[in-house]
């Protein structure tokens, strides 16, 4: 179900320098260096992606690699790794799915989201956008630039205005003013030939294009004149072509700043991830009957394990018990430093609390979690945790910051 145009908010999410950023994520020693992903410079290879350090030397996507190497001879050349990029893209999509049921994937590194009905869960458009950026950084390990606007066209253009790691929100009524100063070639659909013809006629900016005489435009771009002129004003009625439907899964991941070996530290992080997942289930009025664990080791080998529950739950304590068992089994199979840890729940259904009248434990757990949710909503951090996690530095810092805010 699409929001009425007057209430519509669309996000264009675009991972910055995706292939190159993925290689830097895998090889942190490349951070800050010019990196070019592409084919061999000795053959007919072309640039697939380049870090912003390489772009400062004039390197661009689709440029012949031989030319790129001449422009930036100190660059590190990396051959593309499709498997890595597909995995990161899938993780990116999972984050986007948590913010909207309407996600239109455009390519491996960009998508549109209709967030018109998401504010009640995530707060204002700006709060949602910043939360989305942080989730992508935490759970994918990459920076994403967002454009937010009343339609797809303006959102896409806006996402490119503050790169890298940008966020540009174009409020309703500001579309024409935002697009006006931009050069005509920034409008999707205006290629090099059309740009040259428009500039020759004195039409340099999108503001020029928006007010150009229709007869003149017909001579320059033909029957496409009306559509281009409307788009130059920021008008676009295309809907986000996501497939609305019931959410299939949700969860959270954390990529560590350093590889983790200690079981206690992994279990503490796992509890926090389960805590966030359970809270999200309760906020959305859902329950789950499958718990899945994801582990990525320091060599990027990734495994997943899952287990079905006897009955649906929205209690993070129950989710953690199962996830912790899965973690123990995984570490028994292979004990190695862990780079990423994640938990996801699936087989979701609308919550039903028709509990057994004699099941006091489930009743008390439900009451406890309702209280935890109220505290978390008020303070921003859950204050009730198992004793063995009370010394967790991250949780201790959150509690301290909460006390300071009060």
* Largest sheet report: 5 strands, mixed
Number of strands: 13
CATH superfamily of the largest domain: Reverse transcriptase/Diguanylate cyclase domain
Task: Give the C-alpha Rg.
Answer: 25 Å
| Poorly predicted tracts of residues | 393-406
Q: Report the CATH topology name of the largest domain.
A: Alpha-Beta Plaits
Shape: flat
Count of DSSP-assigned helices:
16
Mean pLDDT: 86
The portion of residues forming beta strands comes to: 15-25%
Strand order in the largest sheet: 5-6-1-7-8
**H/E series, N to C?**
EHEEHHEHEEHHEHEHHHHHEHEEHEEHH
Question: CATH class of the largest domain, anyone?
Answer: Alpha Beta
Percentage of residues assigned to helices: 40-55%
* Broad structural category: alpha+beta
Number of domains: 3
Termini gap: 41 Å
* Corresponding CATH architecture of the largest domain: 2-Layer Sandwich
Describe this structure in words.
The chain has 406 residues and is an alpha+beta fold. The chain folds into 3 domains: 9-166, 2-Layer Sandwich (Alpha-Beta Plaits); 175-232, 5' to 3' exonuclease, C-terminal subdomain (DNA polymerase, domain 1, Orthogonal Bundle), CATH 1.10.150.20; 249-405, Dna Ligase, domain 1. The chain is 43% helix and 20% strand. It is built from 16 helices and 13 strands. The strands form 3 sheets. The protein has a 5-stranded mixed β-sheet. Strands 9, 10, 11, 12 and 13 form a 5-stranded antiparallel β-sheet that branches. The longest helix has 22 residues, at 263-284. The protein starts with 9 loop residues before the first strand and ends with a helix. Residues 393-406 have low confidence and may be disordered.
């Amino acid at each position: 179900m699409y929001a009425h145009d007057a209430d519509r908010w669309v996000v264009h999410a675009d991972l910055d320098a995706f292939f190159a950023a993925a290689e830097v994520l895998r090889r942190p020693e490349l951070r800050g260096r010019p990196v070019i992903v592409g084919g061999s410079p000795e053959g007919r290879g072309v640039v697939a992606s380049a870090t912003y350090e390489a772009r400062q030397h004039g390197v661009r996507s689709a440029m012949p690699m031989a030319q790129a190497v001449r422009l930036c001879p100190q660059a590190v050349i990396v051959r593309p790794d499709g498997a890595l990029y597909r995995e990161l893209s899938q993780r990116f999509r999972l984050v986007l799915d948590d913010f909207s049921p309407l996600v239109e994937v455009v390519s491996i590194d960009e998508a549109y989201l209709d967030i018109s009905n998401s504010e009640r869960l995530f707060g204002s458009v700006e709060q949602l956008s910043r939360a989305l950026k942080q989730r992508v950084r935490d759970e994918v390990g990459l920076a994403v630039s967002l454009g937010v606007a009343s339609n797809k066209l303006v959102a896409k253009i806006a996402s490119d205005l503050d790169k890298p790691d940008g966020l540009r929100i174009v409020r309703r009524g500001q579309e024409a003013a935002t697009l006006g100063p931009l050069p005509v070639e920034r409008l999707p659909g205006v290629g090099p030939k059309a740009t040259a013809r428009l500039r020759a006629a004195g039409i340099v900016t999108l503001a020029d294009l928006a007010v150009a005489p229709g007869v003149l435009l017909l001579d320059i771009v033909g029957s496409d004149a009306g559509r281009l002129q409307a788009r130059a004003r920021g008008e676009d009625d295309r809907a986000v072509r996501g497939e609305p439907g019931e959410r299939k899964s949700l969860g959270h991941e954390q990529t560590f700043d350093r590889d983790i070996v200690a079981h206690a530290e992994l279990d503490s992080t796992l509890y926090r991830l389960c805590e966030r997942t359970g809270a999200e289930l309760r906020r959305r009025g859902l329950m789950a009957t499958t718990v899945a664990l994801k582990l990525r080791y320091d060599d990027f080998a990734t495994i997943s394990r899952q287990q079905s529950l006897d009955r649906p739950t929205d209690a993070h304590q129950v989710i953690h018990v199962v996830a912790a068992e899965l973690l123990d089994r995984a570490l028994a199979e292979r004990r190695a430093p862990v780079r990423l840890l994640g938990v996801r729940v699936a087989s979701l259904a609308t919550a039903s609390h028709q509990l057994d009248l004699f099941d006091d434990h489930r009743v008390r757990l439900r009451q406890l979690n309702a209280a935890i949710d109220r505290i978390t909503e008020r303070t921003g951090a859950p204050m009730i945790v198992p004793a063995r996690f009370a010394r967790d530095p991250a949780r201790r810092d959150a509690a301290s910051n909460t006390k300071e805010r009060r």
